[in-house]
Amino acid sequence: MPTEPPRSTAAVLPKHSLPAAESVVQVPTATERPTVTPVPTTVPPTPTATPQPDLRPVVGLQVGHWKIEDHPDEQAALRRFSGAYYRGYDEWEVNFVIAELTRDQLEAEGVVVELLPATVPIGYEADVFVSIHVDGVTGAQAATRRGWKVATPFRASLASQRLEAAIATTYPAATGLPADPLGPSYDMRAYYAFAYYRYWHSLAPTTPAVLLEAGFMTHPDDRVLIFQQPERMATGLAKGILAYLEAYHPADPDARASIGLAMLRPIAADTPIFPRADERQTPLLRVGPAQPLVQVAQSREADWYLVFTHGGSWDLGWIRSSAVRDTGEPLEPPHPRP
Q1: Residue 167, Cα to own-chain centre: how many angstroms?
Q2: pLDDT on residue 4
Q3: 222, 133 in Cβ contact below 8 A?
Q4: How buried is residue 72: exposed, middle or buried, by Cβ count under 10 Å (0-12/13-18/19+)?
């Protein structure tokens, strides 16, 4: 685990010796006293310590749904998503407790921690980013749906995948919670803070990142931990982050690089996009060369790409890899930077 770097030591200056005093000059008279010419002295400069870079890892912990009213205009639609709710408790309140407890454990190990609200700074950079949430469902599912899940972004870097694997090992061991059998959703992987190709207020694509759904606040067994033992959830998360940092910090640039193609465009007019990687499906829509596309995943054989339409309604679907070309255009939001 990285430790705080040693304090820098000021350079030792060479010893300074004052110039020897000049000889006393006497005026050859009987009445005048001898005079001495003053000797100028040199005052050595005050030693200055050379600042050393802070090599401690930086971890951003985002409190899911906290301060959603402060979302910028480009994310105005997100101001109405307050998350899960249970008997007077909003999700952000639970997330905040878990985040604070996790922060305390990480700081005790010498990690620099930044607690972040729902709004992410433009191009946010850190050695680790975790968005902390709890889940919730209604109706009959509330009695049966439970467990945790963790997701990397679409186009996840190798560093993000390693972070996910570390947390997936330590979190269930510390909490005893089962994994949600449905696993991470597309919505988790397309989380707005990950979507640097859609929003300016998002992570830098080189920031290793995951989203953790810590449990279901609507399930009675998960609620025992959420409301009575949140420190166990914090321990599971903190241990995963520390294990990742111990193994891989600082991550090399290649490991932090986002995996995926540049902007794509259809080669021909009326190119179909399907709900699944199957041409027997009814197309969701048809697009032409004027429509840029963001590739976020691919089939195992790489003959299909999962893409978003870039801008507009941001439709998600599958397109034949042979039907598009890589334009080399940068992946940036379709609107001006705020």
Answers
A1: 14
A2: 43
A3: no
A4: middle
Q: What angle do CA 247, 252, 256 make, to 5 degrees?
A: 95
Q: Which amino acid is at 101?
A: L
CA distances from 311 to 30, 77, 236, 247 (A): 103, 15, 38, 39
Start-to-end CA span in the chain (Å): 38
- Which residues are CB-neighbours of 279 under 8 A, at least 6 positions away? 272, 320
Q: Nearest-CA neighbor of 180 among 151, 157, 158?
A: 151
Taking the C-alpha atoms of residue 208 and residue 241, their distance in angstroms, rounded to an integer, is: 11
Domains of the chain in sequence order: 58-256 (3.40.630.40), 264-326 (2.30.30)
* Model pLDDT for residues 282-322, shown as the tens digit of each residue: 999 999 999 999 999 999 999 999 999 999 999 999 999 99
Judge whether 273 and 318 are in contact, CB under 8 Å: yes
For the CA atoms of 125, 130, 132, 133, what is the dihedral angle to 10 degrees?
100
Angle between helices 230-248 and 91-107 (to 10 degrees): 50
Q: Which residue has the tokens 């988790």?
A: 188
Can you give the pTM of this predicted structure?
Answer: 0.84
Q: Per the structure block, which two tokens stand in for 247?
A: 């193994």
Q: Following DSSP, what letter does each residue of 219-262 receive, concatenated?
A: SHHHHIIIII-HHHHHHHHHHHHHHHHHHHSSPPHHHHSPPS-S
